[in-house]
């Protein structure tokens, strides 16, 4: 916490906010830009412009959802706490829409092993982490199984295989559904 305050005013955090990736003496900022940079570095980005669009579109949903989630998770003042239930309702409505779009796209892609087909990508990572975080926030209210059953199967498969070590080490050990 102390490092954050000092770093914010000293210029460590370029935009005075997280996220920050420091690699080989360079600072990389902005969550989606960092995700795309790493996806390219590790060959987890799309194989063509259509796949890249689908990835970009998924990652951009973070910009829509994060402020809404923040109003729930970081409600500290009495006024903010009074708004939590209304903010949860608004977020659940938005999530229901987004999950249904994720489902339609995954079905259109053939509901294969991964979101984009036969190759693991940052789309699979993003969906798995996002949906797990949403579940941890809402538990049984999570709209996923109702509106995105195929995406939920994908997320469970990725969580239990490709991202198993990551989830075992960094996330609460509970079932998604």
Structural overview:
By secondary structure, the chain is mainly alpha-helical. The chain is 65% helix and 5% strand. The chain has 9 helices and 2 strands, in the order αββαααααααα. The chain has a two-stranded antiparallel sheet with strand order 1-2. Strand 1 and strand 2 form a beta hairpin. Helix 3 (49-73) runs antiparallel to helix 5 and helix 6 (122-138) crosses helix 8 (149-160).
Average predicted confidence as pLDDT = 86
What strand line-up does the widest sheet have? Answer: 1-2
SSE-based structural type:
mainly alpha
Q: Helical region count?
A: 9
Unreliable spans are: none
Order of helices and strands: HEEHHHHHHHH
Q: How big a fraction of the residues is strand?
A: under 5%
Spatial gap, N to C terminus: 34 Å
Tell me the helix content: 55-70%
Which word captures the global form? globular
Biggest sheet record: 2 strands, antiparallel
Q: What's the alpha carbon Rg, rounded to whole Å? A: 17 Å
Tell me the total number of β-strands.
2
What secondary-structure arrangement, pairings included, does this model have?
Elements: H1 2-10, E1 20-23, E2 26-29, H2 31-41, H3 49-73, H4 78-82, H5 84-108, H6 122-138, H7 144-147, H8 149-160, H9 164-170
Antiparallel strand pairs: 1-2
Helix pairs in contact: 3-5, 3-6, 6-8
Give a short summary of the structure:
By secondary structure, this protein is mostly helical. Helices cover 65% and strands 5% of the residues.
